[in-house]
């Protein structure tokens, strides 16, 4: 059985970009996901940082490699963001649950993605610092209301909360994104093919093609 599962295993590579205001913990989320580490004194990202990590989706027998671009949150770097979300397959818009302003900034990023990002990009809205519940400014009901408004506008968004500090919920964020990506169109390299556009610049498959129903459920156009 294990040999059959190995033979049927598919491989996919997708480009994922993190967006959000400075100090919301984007880099901390990535480092928790990639290296399982956390640094209270982490310096702000300059420009963007590139990391990779893989996950396995058992139900679809797919190993997904994420090519992750962690962008700087400072305003002076905002003009560089399109360089990183261009051709991205997924975007993780991060806010700090203790900062209402960061939630508004995350909404601004989603608005920009809807206008300029590739059609079919999977968007996830993630509230970091869930370990600071006693300092919460952004209620889950507000997030639900916003997401429902976006859904009525034809944009489905994956929502989650996590703590990069404790690690709670971080892996789940990326697993949910992985399940929303169109892996059904990825050609297994063991069968002589490869995912289209898997180079580091573009990443992943061409989401401008017709999307399967499973992918449409969590994509934003």
From TrEMBL:
<dbReference type="InterPro" id="IPR005225">
    <property type="entry name" value="Small_GTP-bd"/>
</dbReference>
<dbReference type="Pfam" id="PF00071">
    <property type="entry name" value="Ras"/>
</dbReference>
<dbReference type="GO" id="GO:0005525">
    <property type="term" value="F:GTP binding"/>
</dbReference>
<feature type="compositionally biased region" description="Polar residues">
    <location>
        <begin position="211"/>
        <end position="221"/>
    </location>
</feature>
<feature type="region of interest" description="Disordered">
    <location>
        <begin position="190"/>
        <end position="221"/>
    </location>
</feature>
<protein>
    <submittedName>
        <fullName>RAB family GTPase, putative</fullName>
    </submittedName>
</protein>
<dbReference type="InterPro" id="IPR027417">
    <property type="entry name" value="P-loop_NTPase"/>
</dbReference>
<feature type="compositionally biased region" description="Gly residues">
    <location>
        <begin position="194"/>
        <end position="205"/>
    </location>
</feature>
<dbReference type="GO" id="GO:0003924">
    <property type="term" value="F:GTPase activity"/>
</dbReference>
<keyword id="KW-0547">Nucleotide-binding</keyword>
<dbReference type="InterPro" id="IPR001806">
    <property type="entry name" value="Small_GTPase"/>
</dbReference>
């Amino acid at each position: 059985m294990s040999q059959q599962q190995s033979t049927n295993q598919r491989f996919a590579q997708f480009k994922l970009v993190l967006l959000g205001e400075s100090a919301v913990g984007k880099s901390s989320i990535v480092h928790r996901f990639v290296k399982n580490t956390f640094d209270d004194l982490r310096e702000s990202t300059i420009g963007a940082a590139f990391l990779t990590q893989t996950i396995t989706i058992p139900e679809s027998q797919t190993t997904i490699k994420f090519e992750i671009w962690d962008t700087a949150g400072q305003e002076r770097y905002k003009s560089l963001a399109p360089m990183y979300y261009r051709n991205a397959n997924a975007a993780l818009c991060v806010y700090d649950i203790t900062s209402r302003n960061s939630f508004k900034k995350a909404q601004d990023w989603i608005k920009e993605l809807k206008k300029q990002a590739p059609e079919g990009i999977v968007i996830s809205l993630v509230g970091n610092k869930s370990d600071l519940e006693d300092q919460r400014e952004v209620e889950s009901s507000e997030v639900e209301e916003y997401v429902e408004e976006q859904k009525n506008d034809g944009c489905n968004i994956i929502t989650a909360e996590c703590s990069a500090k404790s690690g709670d919920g971080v892996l789940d964020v990326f697993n949910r994104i992985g399940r929303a990506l169109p892996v059904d169109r990825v050609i297994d390299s063991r069968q002589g093919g490869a995912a289209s556009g898997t180079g580091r610049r573009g990443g992943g498959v061409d989401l401008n093609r017709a999307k399967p129903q499973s992918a449409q459920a969590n994509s934003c156009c």
